[in-house]
Every structure is written in C-alpha cells, then in structure tokens.
C-alpha cells in the first residue's frame, strides 16, 4: 500500500518492458474502486478513452515513448472504505504509427439519434 493525504498530488509512471524498441504506450482508461476485486459495482473514472474524467487528472511529458506518466489528486470513497484501488488499461502501439489508437489522444464518442 501507498499512504497519502487527501488531495495530495499522486504521480504515476507505467513502463513497457520489451526488447522491441519501436513501441509506444498510451494510458487509455483508469478507474478507481474501494474493492480490489470489484471494478464494476462502485467505481470512479479518472480517464476514459484517453479523455480525462477527473478534473485533476493530467498526462505529463515522458522521456521515452515506452513510458507513460500521469497523475491526479488523492481522494477517498465516501463511507467506510479505507482504501482506493486503481486499475488502468494501457495500449501498446508501434512508435510513429500515427494512425494507431495511441496517437489519437482523447476520443469522445457522441451518441447519435436512432431516427431514420
């Protein structure tokens, strides 16, 4: 466990370990839950499809394409939940493949009317 104070800035880094040097990593979706075994019942979305859902969530510059850096302010779930667990989905793409999902950034999907 990592202990922090409320609203403290948390900085995270995800590194890709591969012998292929031509890969890049992208933070797609991160959700938090008070239960390490259940990320569906009670969750808080930090980012989804590369778009920040939490106003304190931010991406930071990285020294290499195989490293993703991001952060947010610490929070807690209201009630009797002493811990917050984080689950992030990261995408791995070919570096410099600008048509790949990694280079699209935030992708918001708008619902369309189903009328004919």
TrEMBL record:
Keyword Disulfide bond among record annotations: yes
Pfam families: Zona_pellucida
Keyword Nucleus attached: no
Swiss-Prot/TrEMBL keywords: Disulfide bond, Signal
Boundaries of every ZP domain copy: 1-109
PANTHER family: CUB AND ZONA PELLUCIDA-LIKE DOMAIN-CONTAINING PROTEIN 1 (PTHR14002:SF38), ENDOGLIN/TGF-BETA RECEPTOR TYPE III (PTHR14002)
Name of this protein: DMBT1 protein
Native source species: Anthoscopus minutus
């Amino acid at each position: 466990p990592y202990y922090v104070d409320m609203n403290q800035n948390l900085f995270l880094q995800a590194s890709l370990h591969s012998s292929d040097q031509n890969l890049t990593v992208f933070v797609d979706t991160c959700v938090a839950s008070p239960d390490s075994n259940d990320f569906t019942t009670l969750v808080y979305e930090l980012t989804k499809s590369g778009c920040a859902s939490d106003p304190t969530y931010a991406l930071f510059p990285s020294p290499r394409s195989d490293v993703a850096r991001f952060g947010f302010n610490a929070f807690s779930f209201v009630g009797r939940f002493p811990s917050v667990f984080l689950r992030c989905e990261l995408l791995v793409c070919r570096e410099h493949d600008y048509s790949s999902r990694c280079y699209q950034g935030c992708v918001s999907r708008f619902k369309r009317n189903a009328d004919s």
